[in-house]
Design goal:
By secondary structure, the chain is α+β, with helices and mostly antiparallel strands. It contains 25 helices and 22 strands. Strand 21, helix 22 and strand 22 form a beta-alpha-beta unit. The protein starts with a helix and ends with a helix. The C terminus is likely disordered.
């Protein structure tokens, strides 16, 4: 049945329906009488699926939709022999459905990609650590000890029992930096072991692991999120009984059933059916010119009503790229020589902090030299020799292990830089601490302006991030967000979005990472960074910013608001035309055929008004922000 309905509702068959309807009109004008009215083809192609859809919504979904009113008018017209009128209202509604379907895209691929991230194998080792066996992930049990080598994905949630490393857990928390991990630290399923070999004791496996729970969150959000009813269908709840009541009263009062049927025909919300999809298609075309892909008409309508915007941090408010933010020296070593020592040592490291330091040195044309005796301690730091000097670069634990004196001045500076959300590399030369290098993500230049503009539009801004509290507070203060939630896992982001929705907020969530996908699915409207964002985040979102330019968010909100206003204006216009047509029908001045032609005037006006959205200017602020 569904295949048949999809076929009849498709573009080719709707074109065929329109052709036969036109032939029926020509025959009627030319007074040509055929044995079977060609409009019957339009009724079968466009009308029968409409009737089935209306009954399904009414009986199965308890939903009084605009399709029901169309179906009533169509059936009534057929009963009195007005086949052209029946075919016409069915065709117009089918045309509106096609326009609306063109604005919708299904986004199930993201969930499939997320499932593909689930580890399928694990290396289980014996309690003494001398033997190991690779098994299917589903065979791993709680308390099993697993060895995870550098570059491998951790197959369970658990705690490190042996070894040190750095773990890229951006899939879970969105943090831009790998996190140093030591014995007794927690690790998550699906995260990547970057450097050292570690042994992990499993404490959550299979469907209880963090990654599987995140997959379930996406599935639940996708399945439970109620489809937004179109404005036209909301009006249909009271349009249907009113139309039916007026038609029956007119019939009983005049004794003329044709007048009653004419009332149903002119009451048909054909212009109403076109009001939403035509406006949305024009707005989507407008947005596309600015590099914004809007996948859903419902999302565009919701965006116009958004009063709360929740931002992820990394890759959204920031560029998601590390850079050297501050270099502080404790000794009197020459600045360029100091940077040359550090970058030469870090040049052999694969750590993102090391790469950022080397990149900064190259940009400053600092010489990077050949070193000796390079040693890497996973999750701690690196050491090497250069110019007969022993250079250590790493975290404070690495310095303590190597018995480097960390005095109060150094500790205070480290704490100060950490409060600013920086990741730190402490540098010691010949057992003396020479300095500390602070690295951080870069805030997008227009982030503060965007937050300010949203606040000026009476829109609340919220930060939801997996980063630690110090980092979150620092970045939030720079862009002007005061509602901050840090150290969040995917389920925490979902819960915060749900709590905002429960407060009757209309929430737009903006993110770029895999960890954002459940929250994106949960929000009323989801926006993904389309260039740097993960495929899963983009597929989960309703809207994608192709240029990763968040300055387009205020423009998008304003465009969506204008679209909703245009839809409402179009509906009002169509209702006024319908009201006049109803009056003429009651007076007997219109027949079902002339009534169908007259109320099509409303459809034409609605389409023309919607088309104005395409060229209207909403981008002044974009130009201002980019400057």
């Amino acid at each position: 049945m569904k295949k048949i309905m999809d076929f009849l509702f498709g573009i080719p068959m709707t074109i065929v329906s329109g052709i036969f309807l036109a032939v029926s009109l020509i025959c009627m004008i030319a007074n040509i009488h055929l044995q079977i009215d060609p409009a019957w083809v339009s009724v079968i192609i466009s009308g029968v699926p409409m009737l089935i859809l209306a009954l399904q919504r009414l009986i199965l979904e308890k939903w009084v939709s605009s399709a029901l009113l169309i179906s009533m008018a169509m059936v009534a017209s057929i009963m009195i022999g007005e086949y052209f009128a029946a075919g016409e209202v069915a065709f117009i509604m089918a045309l509106g459905a096609i326009l609306e379907d063109k604005t919708l895209e299904k986004a199930h691929k993201g969930l499939k990609n997320l499932i593909n991230l689930t580890p399928t194998k694990g290396r289980v080792i014996s309690p003494d650590g001398k033997s190991e066996k690779i098994v299917d992930a589903k065979e791993i049990k709680i308390d099993d000890i697993l060895r995870v080598l550098p570059g491998e994905t951790i197959p369970v949630d658990g705690f490190i029992v042996r070894g040190n490393t750095s773990v890229d857990q951006s899939i879970m928390t969105g943090e831009s930096l790998p996190i140093d991990k030591n014995a007794n630290d927690k690790v998550y399923c699906g995260t990547l072991n970057c450097y050292g070999s570690i042994d992990v004791k499993a404490n959550a496996v299979g469907e209880n692991s963090s990654l599987e729970k995140m997959i379930k969150l996406v599935e639940e959000a996708e399945n439970n999120k109620a489809p937004m009813q179109r404005i036209a269908d909301k009006l249909a709840v009271w349009l249907v009984p009113i139309a039916l009541m007026i038609a029956i009263v007119v019939w009983l009062a005049t004794g003329d059933i044709v007048r009653g049927v004419t009332v149903l025909v002119v009451f048909c919300p054909c212009a109403l059916a076109l009001a939403t999809p035509t406006s949305i298609m024009a707005a989507i075309g407008q947005a596309t010119k600015h590099g914004i892909i809007i996948k859903s008409g419902a999302a565009l309508e919701s965006m116009g009503k958004v009063n709360t915007v929740a931002f992820d941090k990394t890759g959204t408010l920031t560029y998601g790229k590390l850079s050297v933010n501050e270099v502080y020296q404790f000794g009197k070593m020459n600045y360029e020589y100091f940077l040359s020592l550090v970058s030469s040592v870090e040049n052999l490291s694969e750590h993102p902090l090391a790469k950022a330091i080397v990149e900064d040195a190259k940009a400053k044309e600092i010489p990077i030299r050949k070193i000796e005796e390079f040693v890497m301690s996973p999750g701690k730091g690196v050491s090497a020799k250069l110019d007969n000097k022993t250079i250590l670069c790493g975290n404070i634990n690495f310095m303590n292990e190597n018995q480097i004196n960390i005095n109060n001045e150094i500790r205070n500076k480290v704490l100060e830089m950490q409060r600013k959300g920086m990741a730190l590399i402490i540098v010691a030369v010949n057992r003396s601490c020479e300095g500390v290098i602070g690295l951080s993500d870069i805030i997008r230049k227009n982030a503060k302006d965007v937050v300010t503009k949203l606040n000026n539009m009476d829109t609340q801004t919220v930060l939801l991030t997996g980063d630690n509290n110090n980092t979150a507070k620092y970045f939030a203060s720079k862009v002007g967000i005061t509602d901050i939630h840090s150290d969040l896992l995917p389920v925490d982001k979902v819960n915060h979005v749900k709590s905002l929705i429960h407060e009757n907020k209309i929430v737009a969530m903006i993110g770029d990472g895999v960890n954002d996908a459940p929250a994106l699915k949960t929000a009323n409207v989801s926006i993904a960074m389309g260039t740097i964002g993960s495929d899963i985040a983009i597929e989960a979102a309703d809207i994608a910013l192709l240029g990763d330019d968040i300055s387009k968010i205020p423009y998008l909100k304003r465009l969506a608001g204008a679209t909703v206003k245009t839809i409402k204006l179009n509906i009002t216009l169509s209702m006024i035309i319908n009201a006049v047509a109803i009056l003429l029908s009651v007076l007997g001045l219109l027949t079902p055929i002339t009534g169908a032609l007259v109320h099509n005037t409303g459809s034409v006006l609605v389409v023309l008004n919607a088309a104005l959205l395409y060229d209207r200017k909403y981008d002044q602020d974009i130009v201002h922000l980019e400057k």
